[in-house]
Amino acid sequence: MTKKVDSRKEILNLIDQTIADTNYIKDDNAISNNIYKLLSNWIMLYFVISILLFISFKTATVNNQLDSHWYFPVQRIITMITYPLILIYYFYCVYKKAYSLKERDFLKLYSIVPSLMVFTKIINPLSYYLDTTLLLNLCHTISLDFIALIISSVLLKFYFKDSKLSLFIIYNVFVYLIYILVFSIFISSDNPSLFIIQCNNLMQYAQDTSLIVFTHFIIVLLYIKKVENNRL
């Protein structure tokens, strides 16, 4: 009985896959909601985890719990578990959901973006248990989450073949250069100005809460939705 049920599921999955692929054969520029759904679900999970961890840190700061022997170990463990889990969720969807070949190929290539984003979140807690000094310094120097967003905009441009997305690439590069400029001035100055300090704190806050990442994906999702609506 179990074998029959499994066989039926395989047949249904094959039918769903065939329908998805046929849609792309009929219209090469067609865009289903699959990419939109996966990216929206994934970034929401990423953002919620980032916000909860940030709130946890601020709460512990207010309650003077940062000096306790348990807070940071627990925070590190939670970070090292939750972020990889949402990355696993991404890959599970890519390989198990009924996506077309075109969608799946794109999402496989695009996986470098969530992978880099998760890596930047777990590298710091990992450094307490593994010798990751070189990688940690690399992350702080070039800010891999910004690099991930630039890669994201480039991949989306080539997937959708829309020259307007060049502006999105320029926007992401511009934000990254501003971050590098502010950070470089801040660390190289013995007495940075109040303006530089505030700018650095603002950029750090935006990174800690993943606001920059979230803003990027809001723009991405709005664009995908617009393209989908225009197609319909």
Commentary on this structure:
This protein is mainly α and 232 residues long. The protein has one domain (32-230). 83% of the residues lie in helices and 0% in strands. It is built from 10 helices and no strands. α3 packs antiparallel against α5 (112-126) and α5 runs antiparallel to α7. The protein starts with a helix and ends with a helix. The model has no long low-confidence stretch (mean pLDDT 83).
Please name the defining characteristics of this protein:
about 230 residues, mainly alpha, 10 helices, about 85% helix, globular, transmembrane
**Major pleated sheet:** none
Mean pLDDT: 83
Specify the number of helices.
10
Radius of gyration: 21 Å
Overall tally of domains: 1
Gap between N and C termini: 42 Å
**Helical residues, percent:** over 70%
Shape: globular
Give a quick rundown of the structure.
The protein is mainly α and 232 residues long. Helices cover 83% and strands 0% of the residues.
What is the secondary structure topology, with strand pairs?
Layout: H1 2-26, H2 34-62, H3 71-96, H4 101-110, H5 112-126, H6 133-142, H7 144-160, H8 165-188, H9 194-208, H10 211-231
Helix pairs in contact: 2-3, 2-10, 3-5, 5-7, 6-7, 7-8, 8-9
